[in-house]
Amino acid sequence: MPTSAGPAPLPVLGNLLDFGRDPLGFLERVTREYGCGVKVRVEAERDTYIVTDPAQVEAVLLNTGRAFQKGYQRHPLMRLVLGNGLVTSEGDFWLRQRRLAQPAFHRARIASYGESMVRFADRMARGWRDGQELNLSEAVMHLTMEIITQTVFDVDLHGDPRAQHVGRAVNTLLDAYGHQMTSAVRALMERLPVHLPVPGEGRLRRAVQELDALILALVAERRAEGRDHGDLLSMFLDARDEDGTGMTDAQLRDELVTLFLAGHETTANALTWTFFLLSQHPEVEAKLHAELRAVLRGRLPTPQDLAHLTYTGQVVKEVLRLYPPVWWLSREPQADWLCDDVLIPAGVEVGISPWVMHREAQFYPDPLAFRPERWTPAFEAGLPRYAYFPFGGGPRLCIGNAFALMEATLVLATVAGRFRIAVPEPSRVVPDPSLTLRPKGGLRVRLHARKETS
C-alpha cells in the first residue's frame, strides 16, 4: 500500500519552523508539490495528512461523528476556553446539545435579529465623518461584539455596565487565546521533556475565570427572573430534551462562550476583508453601490431585502472564498482510512484548508481574482460540493452560518450605502492566520461619505 510523501521533517521540530513562518504559504506549497494526502509534522506527537480533493473532504466531513471525530478535546487550550460546547464536544453529548440549540437558529428567529444588526451598523456609521481615518478592524470587531451581545443577552454595550464588562473580558480572552493557539514558543515548549509554564498562559486563565463569572452571574439572574427576552440565552434556558431536561449552567457557559468566539471575530474579519477588497476593485464597488441604490432607495436594509440584494450576496460569497475566516479545520480518523491510494493511520490529524481549496484553479478560473460575478446559479451547480465550504460541512456544519451570512450582508449594505472606504497603504495588508484569518495589524482606512447620504 503506498504511503504518503511530504517535506522532510527536522528532528524534534518536524515541519514546525516552516509552518510557523508562513502557515498559508506552507500549505499552498506542500499541497502543490505533493498533492492530496501530503504528510507533514506540525504537532509534537502525531502526523498531519492534508486532504485537498473535494470528494475526500466530503467523506471526512460527512462522516464526522462516525469514522472521524473532531478530536479537539485533546487540546488543553480548547478545553480551557470552549469547554464542551458545540465546537468541541463529540458523540451523543454533542447531538443532544445540537438538538437543544437548533431552535435558537431557526430561520424566523434569525430574521428577528436583523433589526438589531442594522441598528448597530447604522449607529456606527452615523458616528463616522468624511475624511476620517480609523482602524476598520477594530471598528467592525466592536460592532459584531455589540450585535452578538444584544442577540445573546438582550443588552446593549452602550448602556449596560455588565455588557461592557463582558465585552472587555471577551476581548482579553480572544487576544490571549489567539496568542497561545498560534504561539511558536508554546509549540516548541510542548516538545520539551519537562513541563514549564508558557508565557502568557496565566493571562488566558485569568480571562477565562473573569468571563465565566460574568456569564454565570447573568445566567443565574435570568433563571431567577424567568422572563423570555427574545434572545439566544432565553432560547437556551427554555430548551428541553425529550426527557424534559434542559442545559446545566456549565453547558450554558460552554455554549455561550462558543457563540461569542465563533459569532464575533469570524464575521468581523469577513467584513474587514470585504471592505479591503472593495477598496481595491472600484468596478465591483460601483456595481455594489448601484444595486444598493436601486433596491434600497436611500433607506436602511431589512432582512426582507436580502432576496433582492443579489450582487451584494455574491460579493460576500466571493470574500468568503478568498479569505475564509476559518482557514484550517481538522478531524481524527477512528480507524485506518484509505484516501485514494494513500493509507492514513487511525489517530493522526487529517487537515483540511478552505484557504487552499478555495484558490484551486481547476474549480475557480483565475482563482486569485476578486470576481463576485462568478457566483451564478450555473457556476454553483457545476462546482463540486466541497470545493467551497466556508462554514465547514456535514453534521458539524456551523450552526450559525445563516446568522453570519445575514449579518455580513446587512452590515455591508448599511455601511456601503453611506461611505466609500479607501485603504491608503494596501501593500501593507497581509493575512494573519491566527484563530481566524485577519489582516495583520488591522486595517487602516480613510472614510469618504457619499454625497447622497446625510
TrEMBL record:
The keyword Iron applies. Keywords: Heme, Iron, Metal-binding, Monooxygenase, Oxidoreductase. Pfam families: p450. This is Cytochrome P450. It comes from the Bacteria. InterPro entries: Cyt_P450, Cyt_P450_CS, Cyt_P450_E_grp-I, Cyt_P450_sf, Cytochrome_P450_Monoox. The keyword Kinase does not apply. Belongs to the cytochrome P450 family. SUPFAM superfamilies: Cytochrome P450.
